[in-house]
Amino acid sequence: MSKNPTPRRRKARDLEAVRDRLSSLLPPLLENAAASYQAFAGLDPPEDVKGFTAHHAACKAALAHLDLLAKLARWAEGTAEAAPPAEPDSAARLLAEAQAALAEHADPEDDDTDLLA
After folding, report:
1. Helices in the chain by DSSP H: which ranges?
2. 21-27 long-range CB contacts below 8 Å, 24 or more apart?
3. Could you read off the pLDDT of 13-72 as tens digits, one per residue?
4. Are 35 and 13 in contact (CB under 8 A)?
5. Is the model's pTM score more than 0.85?
């Protein structure tokens, strides 16, 4: 049985070509990641301490992933240094809501509260 090879793509000629490619590639990936996070975060966390801690850590990692995708998407759009829009889009709104939900349940001794700041 042969493996399906990864399709080869043309190499980008310059950074602008990379930005163009990413600006169309990232929004659907960000939406998929947000939907996956929403589904996972909506599950009841395990009741045992180890399971709850793992669930909490997985949520924080997913939020960090969403944050990095959003930053990369802003860079690809050429707005990485621009002020955030006055009306946040659905992914940014979901990210803010998730951060607020995590903050409500954060361990006061956990000093990793600005993970996404």
Report:
1. 15-41, 49-77, 90-104
2. 22/72, 22/73, 22/75, 22/76, 23/73, 23/76, 23/77, 26/69, 26/72, 26/73, 26/76, 27/73
3. 788 888 888 899 999 999 999 999 999 999 999 999 999 999 999 999 999 999 999 999
4. no
5. no
